[in-house]
Design goal:
Layout lengths: L1 E10 L2 E11 L4 E5 L6 H8 L7 E6 L2 E2 L5 H7 L1 E3 L12 H9 L6 H14 L15 H14 L4 E5 L7 H16 L3 E5 L3 H7 L2 E6 L2 E6 L1 H4 L3 H8 L3 H10 L1
Parallel strand pairs: 3-8, 3-9, 6-7, 7-8
Antiparallel strand pairs: 1-2, 1-4, 4-5, 9-10
Helix pairs in contact: 3-4, 3-5, 4-5
The structure holds adenosine-5'-triphosphate (ATP).
The site of adenosine-5'-triphosphate has 11 residues, from strand 2 and helix 1.
Pfam family, one: BCA_ABC_TP_C
Protein name: ABC transporter ATP-binding protein
GO molecular function: ATP binding
Length: 246
Amino acid sequence: MLEVRNLSKSFGGLKAVTDASLDVQEGSIVGLLGPNGAGKTTCFTMIAGFTKADEGSVRFKGQDITGLPPHRICALGMIRTFQIVQPFAGLTVQENIAVGAYLHHHNRNEAMSVARDVGKRLGMGAMLDRPASSLTIAGRKRLELARALATGSKLLLLDEVMAGLIPSEITEIVGIIRQIRDEGHTFLMIEHVMQAVMSLAETAYVLNQGKMIAHGPPRELVRDPSVVEAYLGHGAAARLQEENHA
Ligand SMILES: Nc1ncnc2c1ncn2[C@@H]1O[C@H](COP(=O)(O)OP(=O)(O)OP(=O)(O)O)[C@@H](O)[C@H]1O
């Protein structure tokens, strides 16, 4: 469904992403992992059209979308969410979700109806008339997901939807993502909450210092010495092995 090939992006002298490639199969949940500053969000901004890549290409459902603006990419069926959720504070939850629905439903009643359905599917039925400013972090994260879904997109790029949530909220959102996938959606997700990645993603890619250093099933990746070193520093893999033998 998504084929990312050899993306690179520099900011001045800083190589944020170098030669990164990845694939997402339709119907799958794929993780994008890596320590802080590894280049994950920069990859998302290039894939979703928010930043122009210096080099490389992005194909979505076989079509070359490299360089297209975000609204055109969204109209084709792919959308990203944001790590820091900024709803329209003066609008209700339902109106915020409707902002996404307006992409394909230009009539207010229709957009609000789609928003109500999506909100209910995401367990937000009781909150629809509340101002978005009254939502907790967990509520805002759910709203971000709902707004993205309301656009009708089939491929969702999620940027840390679990960040700042407590374990019970994480369990809830994991269930929601699984349910949405089963309804016919595909996910590429940046996530630091490994418990969530382990239970959701069939496969994951690991970025470190802008380069893709590994990919495979998450359970194998956490044992990969290059991944351990990326997170815990040089020599960490050997130290952990010694401690395990001691
Ligand atoms: N617009 C920008 N201008 C300059 N530098 C940038 C810009 N965006 C990102 N960077 C730098 O590029 C590098 C990669 O950042 P990016 O946000 O993609 O990493 P990340 O893996 O998403 O990190 P985190 O997990 O902390 O969100 C960092 O060094 C960051 O400071």
